[in-house]
UniProtKB/TrEMBL annotation:
Domain of life the protein comes from: Bacteria
Stored InterPro entries: ChsH2_C, NA-bd_OB-fold, Thioester_dehydratase-like
SUPFAM superfamilies for the chain: Nucleic acid-binding proteins (SSF50249)
One Pfam family cited in the UniProt record for this chain: OB_ChsH2_C
Protein name: ChsH2 C-terminal OB-fold domain-containing protein
Domain ChsH2 C-terminal OB-fold residues, every copy: 34-90
Length: 107
């Protein structure tokens, strides 16, 4: 299990990543939360040289990717090794600089 969770709307079937109280598509209350497979495809990658705060400065430089999950939603995540756009990656939630964040690795 990846520890990555997504939400979906029982009314309109839209899926998304960051938890919300209401569906961003139709406003329906009561979205359903379910585990994601952790399988995804790289949409973009950037190497962060200037981290946003002291905690992340300690681990810079690091890679941040936008990953399209197999279930649909796009996730911003750490990437353990360089991967080209379109690469297949596998991810899970890990502790990064004291925070529980999604981390992906090339398959
Ligand atoms: Zn909806």
């Amino acid at each position: 299990m990846s520890g990555i969770e997504i939400q979906s709307c029982p009314a309109c079937a839209k899926t998304w990543y960051l938890p919300r109280q209401l569906c961003p598509g139709c406003g329906h209350a009561g979205p359903e939360t379910r585990p994601a497979s952790g399988q995804g495809t790289v949409w973009s990658v950037t190497r962060v040289e200037r981290a946003p705060d002291e905690t992340f400065r300690a681990i810079a430089p690091y890679l941040i990717a936008l990953v399209d999950l197999a279930e649909g939603p796009r996730v911003m995540a750490h990437l353990t090794a360089p991967a080209p756009i379109g690469a297949q990656v596998t991810g899970e939630v890990r502790d990064i600089a004291g925070r529980a964040l999604p981390v992906f690795s090339p398959r």
